[in-house]
Amino acid sequence: MNKMTILLIEDVVPLAEVYIEYLQGENVEITHVTTGDEAYKYLAENSPQIILLDMNLPDVDGMEILKYVSDVGLDSCVIVITAYGSVSRVVDAMRLGAFEYLQKPFDESRFILTVRNAIERMHLRQMVDSYKNQLGRDEFHGMLGKSQVMQAVYDTIDNVAKSSATVFITGESGTGKELCAEAIHNKSNRKNNELVILNCAAIPKDLMESEIFGHVKGAFTGATSDREGAAQRADGGTLFLDEIGEMDINLQTKLLRLIQSGTFQKVGSAKTIKVNIRYICATNRNPLEMIEKGLFREDLYYRLNVIPIKLPALRERGQDKLAIALNFLKKYSEEEGKKFTGYTPEVEEIFMSHLWPGNVRQLQNIIRNVVVLSEGGAVDKDMLPKDFLSIKPDDVVGSEVPNNELLDVFKTPRKRDVTSIRPLWQCEKQVVEEAIEICGGNISRAAGYLEVNPSTLYRKIKNWKDQDSKNK
């Protein structure tokens, strides 16, 4: 079992040393600070599981720290240490979410028992959270769906949020890349600072450098005053570079320097500015193909692609389509003051079989159209937009759906009986072997295009060779 992390906030050092001594036999890791200011700095970057909080600090009232823990939603179990006769303050502390209190003077056994109870509470909370994750979540920080592919996305966000590692989100347009970035930021230790969103596709090429780094007065025609860029606004927070694949390759060099050194210069200035930024980027394009075409720097890609998150297309998410559709229907019905009860079975079948080249954004627009132009009740086929109903599977081939080969099933009639079924491992083997052949035998490169770890391919290839040996 991992050590439980404890933050001890106590200005009297001899007392703190006694408390630490009491806990020598426990499976805990203790950090000691002596002032409120030190506590705030620590809590801005860390989420201790237990906080031992002395209420009488030299620079701040302990109640303010407790309020801070409550306001920012830290998942910490707070034990308040208070002087004799401060019962009213204890009541206020419990109202603010304190787990327990220790009233001075107290003995070693009372102290250890209280801490052990807090440890047990945190272990139980972790178990409950684990069971919830196993059962699946219907909603996660604005993202809807309980399909297995989305559960994997939620788990990745949970694991990476507290880190400062750079995240690279890929996925088709309309899959929710910005929602994913917001979820990572809001679960991170930087959530009280700004999430700066910069859409690289929406900003003209000649203005992008100024948008990122800012400029000084007179740096170029029209620069009538100093301007703060996204990098400076994101200091202490998160910078989300959406559609980074559209960034000019010359500017990518300066972005790489910012990420590596944590410093930059405004356009027209020689002054170096240092910043502390967590980077998240996203693209709906294949970055490896862009690298091959010379449109994206390979060193920048590998610097950004520390934690990759692939958002699935809506067509890959099964019953999520209906859950998301019902959520949008309820939301827009309330906004428009109308009463819709759901969808007819025919409409549900249409939603389930449609390929959704525009993904969640397309589904959202379809339902808003229905709610605005219809009166209410159950949504039937006649309420759906005519242009939407006219779309056939072939019509989306060549659109922004990147894996067009997946749509070939709609173009070529196939024999549909049990003789056409092959074992899954053979189908997978064929796909992998073709990818390696296309990539000139480079397994690592093929793994990149298949969006798996190279070690996964090496392991599978070995297993297939062992399988072939057994069959001979």
The total of helices stands at: 19
Strand content: 5-15%
**Number of separate strands:** 16
Q: What spatial form do the alpha-carbon principal axes imply?
A: globular
Radius of gyration: 28 Å
Helix content: 40-55%
Can you list the strand order of the major beta sheet?
2-1-3-4-5
* End-to-end distance: 47 Å
CATH A-level architecture of the largest domain: 3-Layer(aba) Sandwich
Could you give a short account of the major beta sheet?
A: 5 strands, parallel
Q: Tell me the name of the CATH homologous superfamily of the largest domain.
A: P-loop containing nucleotide triphosphate hydrolases
Name of the CATH class of the largest domain: Alpha Beta
Low-confidence stretches: 393-415
Count of the separate structural domains: 4
CATH domain topology of the largest domain: Rossmann fold
Describe the structure.
The protein is of the alpha/beta class and 472 residues long. The chain folds into four domains: 4-131, 3-Layer(aba) Sandwich (Rossmann fold), CATH 3.40.50; 142-310, Rossmann fold, CATH 3.40.50.300; 315-399, Orthogonal Bundle (Helicase, Ruva Protein, domain 3), CATH 1.10.8.60; 415-471, Orthogonal Bundle (Arc Repressor Mutant, subunit A), CATH 1.10.10. The longest helix has 28 residues, at 108-135. The model is unreliable at 393-415 (pLDDT under 50). It contains 19 helices and 16 strands. The two termini are 47 Å apart.
